[in-house]
Amino acid sequence: MKHLRIQSAAALTLFCLCLLHVQAQNVQESLVFEIPTDARCAALGGTLMADLQGDLHAAAYNPNLLDSSDAGMMALDYVNYYSGIGLISVNYALQKKRKGMTQLGMRALNYGQFDAYDAAGNSEGTFPGSDLIAFAGWSHPIDSNWTVGGQVFAGSRSLNREVAIWAGIEGFVQARWPGKNLALGAGISGFGRQWGWKGTQPSGALPWNLQWTLAKGFDNAPFVFYVKGNHMETWDLAPPGTYDDGIDPLTGEVIPNPKFQFGDQLLRHIALGTQISLGENGSLMFGYDYRRRVEMAASSRFGTNGFSIGGEIKVRQFRFRLTRNTYHFAGSSTHIGLTFNPRRFRANLTN
Question: Is the pLDDT of residue 6 over 50?
């Protein structure tokens, strides 16, 4: 009965968060929330709301993925995006307590340098732009299958003299059935508010993301399938005019839009991934994001846009990750990750 009450409370909390946040979202979204810094998540199609095992890197976006073996471990991640834009993430798992596990971390987005000019067009040098958040997460196992988690974050957005501050909360629930090699989870991320502090930065609700993940493994096969749903709080993610009929410029006749609207809208929410085990010390990951493929193309040029490939290898007490993710036909982004125990690393250096 106690477990049932806790599960009901968790579900009610997520539902209330959705209801409280149904309002105009007049604040521009940030890559700090939208682009996963973790190389494995990026290779599997995005941040994970469920997994068959713990993952400290992915836990930065979902504390339910913390594992007792992560205690004292640190995860470092870096993303080389476009035009000098870079993201970094640091996540540290604290020792396991009776009520669960906790983590501390931060993510930072550097937009690079911009040219500054006065009203007359005279150069005034350059100025930086950045987004930054710090977070603290906690996960609590309800029983052998169910886990609930929460995370709070605070940060800032700055562009020269334009400064805004953020604060918010995130909630997660996950279920694992080891005997079936099955995991299912959902969560709300980026739920918060921005306050304009200096300049003309707007105040308002942050764009949030209601997500879910299904992970399925097999007893006699070395791979795991992942199906992920993004932005389930909004059905139609297509840009305006996507499903409009065309007009023949010569005859004026209406050209019916060939897109299957329901199927296109559904697939824009879905990302797919698979991980192939290469043994205890390595794995390969592949992913596909339909929405990114159709929206980030230019002049019907797709290339490998929407596809991702990554790998992981363990060398002594270090675990390395590397992913190439094509967010746009212009080129690929690189995700790099490193996991280690700073105490053991420091002890090895002193010896």
Answer: no
pTM: 0.84
**Do the domain assignments include residue 228?**
yes
Q: Which residue has the tokens 């196992």?
A: 141
Per-residue tokens: 248: 């023949």
Q: Provide the residue range defining the domain that includes 314.
A: 2-232+269-350
Query: How many folded domains does the chain comprise?
Result: 1
Q: Could you report the per-residue pLDDT of 105-154, keeping only the tens digit for each?
A: 999 999 887 777 777 777 878 878 899 999 999 999 998 899 999 999 99
Do residues 224 and 214 lie in contact, with contact meaning Cβ atoms separated by under 8 Å? no
Per-residue b/e over 253-289, b at no fewer than 16 CB within 10 Å? eeeeeeeeeeebbebbbebebbbeeeeeeebebbbbb
pLDDT in tens, 154-203: 999 998 888 999 999 999 999 999 999 999 999 999 999 999 988 888 89
State the DSSP H helix or E strand holding residue 26, giving kind and residue range, or none if neither. none
How far apart CA 344 and CA 350 sit, in angstroms, is: 10
- Burial class of residue 94, CB neighbours in 10 A (0-12, 13-18, 19+): middle
Residue 210's domain is classified under what CATH number? 2.40.160
